[in-house]
Design goal:
SLC25A32-like, Mitochondrial carrier fold, single chain, transmembrane, transport, MCP_dom_sf
Amino acid sequence: MSDALINGLAGAGGGIIAQLITYPLQTVNTRQQTDRDPKKEKKKAGTVEQMYQVIQQEGWGRLYGGLTPSLVGTACSQLVIDDDDDHEQKVNSAQVFAKSKAEATALRRKKEGAGDGSVGMLSSLMVAAMSGCVNVLLTNPIWVVVTRMQTHTKKSPLNQVQPIVSEHAIVGGIEPPPYATSHAVQEVFDEAGIWGFWKGVFPTLVMVSNPSIQFMLYETLLKKLKQRRASSQSNKGVFLLGALAKLGATVVTYPLLVVKSRLQAKQAIGVDKKHQYKGTLDAILKMIRYEGLHGFYKGMNTKIVQSVLAAAVLFMVKEELVNGARWLLLKDAANAVQSKPLR
């Protein structure tokens, strides 16, 4: 089994576990980002209070709305290419492959008398950026569906789209079926056709800098930690490195994340045009005009908690899975050598 495949599978496992733990925070954060009513700012509920309100008014299930496609997107992002977002925070097989190529080039340059043989920050940044761009183009449809499912509520006319049911079902007291993945897919297609699944792709492409910055910070901090300790790093150290790397990247790129969520959420119909966005630039200008700069940082506190926790768990689990897989492979190889008959 190649090192890239081990890292990819470990990253997928770590990403899924982190997603399961932090998903309710992610759902609340997406709703905070897409809240377009400035009047609500007078009395804004905290994260915990909002989670409680969702549970009371809509049930536990709504905190995990869109979980299935989100897990699919996370696994694909880990196995194929790097991702963000909040959907975001990964080191994977594509990055490992690209990094190995960069390291080989650095060693070749060292033999030629140029450089010290190490991969610099700029090269690490480019590795993450290139893999991130490919990921955005491949997985954006998944995250559009996830955003729709996270922001769908029973009471909000802005996000409300009930599946079509017969009059007999309503008269008989039968509630319409829950808002499922298929409903979100149909809604996006009816609203904007096939290209609707790539809404928010431009700010998401720009947001490639988030995992790039995170990847660069993590690698730099990890290298320094290894230099200080001759032995392998502890779980606690890896946890803190993942948290610090994600915190720095999140603070810098959060406004783009809000714009992306606004574009991917259901567009308001039959209401004030300030709630309707034609594209990235239109969304930015309307947010500045009607909400001010504060609008670009809605839900920032929730996002920091969710992202830092998810990134820390991901990196810690990934390192343990990689180390465990390598240990098993070495053990199997040693057993194979011992069991080989002597001639």
